[in-house]
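Worked Example 4.2. Read the sequence first, then its structure tokens.
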Amino acid sequence: MMTLAEFLAWEETQPGRHEFVRGEVFAMVRARRVHGIVSGNVFATLRQQLRGTPCMAFTESMKLRVADDVLFYPDVFVTCDPADLRTDVLFRAPTVVVEVLSERTQSYDRGQKFTWYRRLASLQEYLLVDPDTRELQLFRRGADGLFTLHDLTGMPQVELASIGCSLPADEIFDGLDPLVQGTLPGV
């Protein structure tokens, strides 16, 4: 079992990324093409819409400290916290977290990982995106502190009310359909 400090020092020497939960280290699953496309689309759209606001979007290369002994790499997250906007290593106060699902990770992202994320007082919205089924599920924190599921599958856009952003579904999934042979000049 490692401490968080030991983990951070160890991970700096590793070629891949790892998540850390209560002393245990978990290697990150290598992402598929569709995962990279969707997370990139979400990040790009949020980054553009957040310009000039006190919030900023980050990608999966940034560490999010969820508890004293829990650290994740969300696919995309937005923070509006001034301390987060000054940090170089560990973010602590996301307003929105987006996870792009895969067959191997979706149970964890929907279950145990969401259980950890819900403990963050700053978190207002948790968006799950399934690139294979094109499902969009948004969990939004209500005034009572509880998260409610909003199934937005088939809807034209996802409204992230906590940060005043809209993610058009066609932009989220843009580029997933493979190019048809002969549609590019010279192909």
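Now turn to a second chain, presented in exactly the same format:
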Amino acid sequence: MKLELEIHHVQDLHFASETSLSGGRLGVSRVDLERVILEDPRLAGVGIESALPGQSLRIIQAAEVVEPRAKVDRPGFAFPGASGGVSGAGTGKTRVLRGAAVVVSEYTNEIIPPGFAYGEIIDMSGPGSKLSPYGSTMNLVLTPRPSEGVHGLEYQVAAKCAALKAADYLASADCTSLPDEFEEYQLPSLPGLQSDKPKVGYIFQVMSTQFGVNPADPVLYGGPIHGSMPITLHPNEVLDGALLSPFRSWGMETYAIQNHPVIRELYRRHGRDLLFVGIILIVASENIQENERGAILAARTAKYVLGADGVILTKSSGGAPEVPMAMTARQCEQIGLKTVAGLWHIPATGDNSAGVVMFSMPEVDGLVSMGTPHEIIVLPPVERVLGRPVPPATEREMMGEIRTRRRYIRGAQDQLGSAGVRAFMS
């Protein structure tokens, strides 16, 4: 299974009469993109703006971020099942517009917690821009407006699909430049993985039901997964648009999944000091029996189907999903698989005074801290805001100084280990 990424580095984004890519400059036709997005009858309109590095600008209610990608050999299938027809992902050639991003700002406040006036933020200047990778990307910001009678979860799916369509549309633009670089991802089938190197798998907790689910959420190949038992995937499928960030996920945008740091690092080391044997998706449930079944199935699949010697685990959402992740790690250890788990630490007091983990299991002793998401950050005033604040807050208030927590700066800290913040002990 071979995936080739043709990567174009985008250094400028501007609006033009036609959408095209040349020499790192991405021109976008508002008229044509609006027509593509509004093919969805769930949407009555869409605001389309740009947000560029260095601008005194703040994006609020940043619900999703997607890297523009298109299948070179199958136009319209960059996100199979979600933005186009269903087709297998992870093979062929995919065009990537590296350095560009599509950001969706939710238009309604129906699915936003009360009092949460600004949602997740992307600042294009100041300290916030340095914390988030999206403060330095060329951002196309969409504010989809729902059609009459469309609201809540239905609107949320429509807004996500708008971002996916826009990402595919941008990467499908007429291009007069050769790719700046190429990346290739290829693993042989399991019978071909013969080596004395340790075999390593990845158990990816992609979703939690802790904060509710959207039953129509197009997470995997355009369909929901909230009731699923563990699912085995080829890593190329994750990198190539088959898997999307789920509803109410903390620190896991689709952009981060497309550039998944754990998968890319395992690929980098594949054949050198380890063999990467595959991925198992798992859902953290509020039902203890479902978590027990999922833990057993994931562990046994990793050992007896993938043939792994060890696994890496990560979690999604808040503190509660740490327990199902630890249950899975314990099952793995009990049948002879070495485990390492990476996780946020959720402070017990709501600030940074007492970072904790939610479990105590002697078998689960290999932990990597990804920090705590509740550090207080002060963002200075800006000249312009994109997005709609939740009433009674006003746009002028959103332009002023904001005191928030690190986790509400979109991309400043993620569950997959790609954030740029590091801690060192002297």
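Notes for the reader: The two ends are 45 Å apart (CA to CA). The CA atoms of residues 37 and 162 lie 6 Å apart.
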